[in-house]
Each structure stands twice: as structure tokens, then as C-alpha cells.
């Protein structure tokens, strides 16, 4: 073996150059030739010191090289267009080798060391690994200390098999199980070589930007020694856990965002509750629940300088080391206002967990906190950093946003950063969203604008469903809802909890009449009474969406003259009644029947209603009454007209609603009324009563078809309740 070891990476078209290396006795190094870019991973192994590429231009290798390596590896990369003699090659290699050896160590070592202590992790390690492999930053190593108690190395060998081909992973095994997490972390940190270190639990995930964002922050402000971010709690079955709206002595809170991350079988694509980690002051330092959870990121030299994790603490090690970080005068702390970490939770409590948690809650607040505060003068340190709040709040807890503005000023010592956005907009309520939709749509085009929608009428999960159904094109928006919280307090929530940009703006509701109700117009209290009022028993009748059969059974048509269509009817009927168990699309695709009256009461979504109207027009008798009835054309409030009801379920794959719901049927009626080319082709009448949500009767005078192309559907779906519904009501009344 001759040193250094060189990876000679060349494309297959240059393989003839391999002949120059046949006489190994002439080489003053060891050369491994490859055309497989995956073998560049060996450069993370310190036994491979130099990369050489060969060819007409180094640009043909840049994509492959930097898909594996970070830019800092450039000092170990030589590109050769030709090799005149083997002596020249030896000279280039050995000069580059020693030049890198004598550089400052931080220039040749990974930027980041991610450290993890393992304990019988097994398959869960895959998602941790997937999260690391997704990092935008390539300059990292992963230091794993296995503290599993098995004597036969079963778990350690499991890990070795997974990581045997990835030289970024440095795997260690203790000679015996410690069981003391503080001690194991202390030992693991001592093995890290990176400039920066991040603590990663053995079953958790960091998001793709975490390492790259942290490097940028550290390098832009050399005084910063510690960074933390926001996180989410997830159960193994995918459920999202929260502690509620009163957490962290009132300094913590949540917001919701849509998270889409590929983690193989643990991938997430849904709304999640993100814990907005509090700022740091004397109050939040007084209890572990208020302090930065994960991710926790230090400059390595800073973590070592403050003493590293305590080897004496089997629990509360994180509390103690965070207190040390906070009082270190050389260590400026920064919160990056961004989701950075997915923390997985075990579902259920065993005896060990219960005992451990009991000890954490005993030792932390009763011993570590008072003794550390006294020994290191924490209150005085925070006072000098202008981060001391009234000690009253240490034991008398209240939500920040509910404190009296004239009597409370939020103080903290950490730097508050937002690297993704330049300006933040708080939209106070869905009504404000709808009223200002065009402005918001324009602002949203700028990817450096951040948005949060705050509400007080819904549960957070209900608001997320609304955002999905009504505002899915605004996917990067966050949201949150606290029922029965005033708009003033929600605005304070934005300023005290969520806001992290100097530039910010609140978009409020416009004060205008929002009584969009048409007065009840009839004493006919049921749909069948309406239908019976303008039809004859001898007419041929079709009902789309019979569901419980109430209307179908009570309309006055002769049994042989009526047909019901529903894929999942919920009533019993005799053999002489015709109920076809199909969707309306399936029924019409194979139907030659014609009808006098067709009642559309199926799926209350505009796409389905539009198709049902078109199909109904095609199947009206040319010499019949030519009437189409449409149910639910008059929602009584904003919530009723959501495309998907907040309270819903699925039975046999069919949407079922658990609250008053009209869907967005009104949008199709609005399109029909406002489109001039149809104005002489139909007449319309409607009935409105407290027992239903508007029944419209359309008499077809001249056959037509509504377009079903994407542009038309986009237009229909684009109608908004607060801006377009009032105009719809005016048109409806004027047509009648």
C-alpha cells in the first residue's frame, strides 16, 4: 500500500488512460479506478484522500461530483486533461495530499457532525437515515454510539449492515451498556469532528434545510454559538400529538402547516401541528418544557467549552446543558423560526417511562432549576441581556397573547431569524381572506412572503380541512384557530408568538354587510311538496341521489313512472320500486330513458352538479315538461358551502356529511345565470324554507350544454362566497 489513496473517476470513453497505471511500481500512491459516481462516497472515508477526474473538461464531472460531495472537497479534487508522465501524476497527487494535511483541520473535515445515541433502534433507524440523506448540505458525518445492552452484538451488526457502504456514517459500540443518556451523549460528542454538531435522537428526523440553514446562520454571525428551531410530535401510527394551547408556562404555542417529506414508508404529506418553540428569558429557562427541544445545534467548540453533557445525568441532561448554554457569555443564541425536526413518540406508557418521567419532573424543577439559577445567577444574566421578565410569571402562568398589553412587554435574549421570508402577513379570519382574495393572490406570487391565517370559529384540524378544500392553491400558508378567542388576542398571538420578520402586516376583515340570506319565500316545507306543485302524477320522474328515500317516496308520481339513482341508498324498498345502485355518471352513460322532471340531489360538488345538469338536459323529453330541479342552491352561511364539509366521513367510498352542508352547488347556478349565451335558453324559479337550503327549478327552453373544460371548472371553483355570492343572489332574484 502506497499513500495517498486516490479515487480516479473517469467516464468510460476515457478508459484507455487506465493503461498508464498498470505498472504500480511506478506509482507513489494507490489508485482505485471507477466510472461509478456512487464510489465517490469513499472520499468520506479518511483512507481515501484525493479525487482525480480525467477528460477534456472538468464540467462533465461537476454534476456527478457535487451530487455526492460538498464544495469544500474541491481542495482534494484534481482534474487532469492529460497525463504526460507518471512522474507528473505522482507529483500532482502528493502535493495535493500534503497540502490538505497541513490545512487548518476545519477546512478538511465535515462542516457538520450529527450525533446519535442508539438503543435497540433496529428498523426505525431507516427513517433517521432517510432524513439525513435528504439534506441539501452534503458536508456532514453521522456519529452513532450504540448503547444497546445485547451481548451478542445483534443490534450493532444490524447497524453495520445498513451503513457498510456509506462512509459518512461512523459507527461505535460501547464496551458495555451505560444506560445514562448524559454519559453516552458526552462520549459521542467527543468523537465528532465537525465545526458544528446537532443532536439527533435515534428514531427522529431532521428536515432537508436544517444543516444548510444552520451553516449560513453560523457563518453570517460568528457570535452565534447555538441554534434551535420548531418541531412536531408524531406517533408511530402517524397521528400528530399536541399539548394544547396552554403550554410552556404560556410562552409556547402551535401553528399548522402542510408538510410533504419523502421518508420512504414513513413519508408525511398532510397538515401538522408545529410547536412554536418559545424565546429564551428567565421564565422560559425555569422549566425544561419551555426550553428548546429539537433540533439543538451548537458550534462544537462552544459545546465543549461549556462542559459538554453531564456524564452524571441519566435524565435531565438536556435541561442542564441548555442552562449552561444560556449563561455562557460568549454564546449568542438564535432561534430559526422554521419547522426543522420530527420527533416520534411511543404510544402508551410502560412502567419504565412512567418512573423516568416522574424522576424528570422531580429532579428538573425541584433541584436542577433552583440550584443552577442560584449558582450561576441566571436572573442577573438575563437582566444584563435585557431578557428578564417579572418573576411573577415563573409561578403564575398565563398565555402571552392574553396578557394585558399595557402591563406586559415580552423580553428575550435570543436572536430571532427567518431565512425563508422577508415579510409576513397575518390574515385575521377566513372572511378577511375571502374579501381580500385578489390582493392575497398577488402577494402570494412572491415566494419571499409568508402567510398565516388565524381563526376563532373552528378547531385547528377543521381549519386545515377548509384550507385544503377552499384554498389548496395557497399550499405554503400556515394557519391556526383558537375557538372563542377575540380578534385582538389573535393579532397579539401573531405579534408575540408567530412573527419573526421585521416587515409584517395584518390583513383584517372589511366592515360590510354580510347578511347574504334570501328571505324564506314559501310555506312548502319539503322538497316533495315543491316538486308535486308543478308536476303531474303521470309525468316521468328521475331522482339523482335518493339517499334516505324521503323525497323519492313522497313525490306523487306513479310507481312505474319514477326512477331513483344512488350508489348507496339508505332505505329499504319493495321490488316494484326502481332504484338503480349506480353513480349518476354510470347511469347516464348507459341510459336511453327520457323524463319530464329530473331532481338533482346527488354529490354536492360543482363538478358533479355540472355533469348532472348536462346529462339531465340530454334526457329530457322533447315534448315533456323539460324541468330540472336542483337542491341546495342557497347555503345559509360560509361554512355550509365548503366543497368538503368539515364534519364528514366515507361509507363505501362515498362522502357523507355530518352537519348542514350544501356544497358549492350555488357556483354552477351562478355560472349559468351570469353567462349571457344561456339567458334565453331557460327560466328559473326557486323556493327557500327553514327546512331546506333552496330548491331551484330550471325549465329548459332550448337545449344547451355547459362546458366542462379545465378553464370553465377553474372559473367556477374560483367563485368566492364573500365576493361573488351576493352578486349571485341578486342575479337569482332578478331572473325570477
Automatic annotation (TrEMBL):
Domain Glycosyltransferase 2-like, chain residue ranges per copy: 113-243
Protein name: Glycosyltransferase 2-like domain-containing protein
Organism: viral metagenome
Organism placement in taxonomy: unclassified sequences, metagenomes, organismal metagenomes
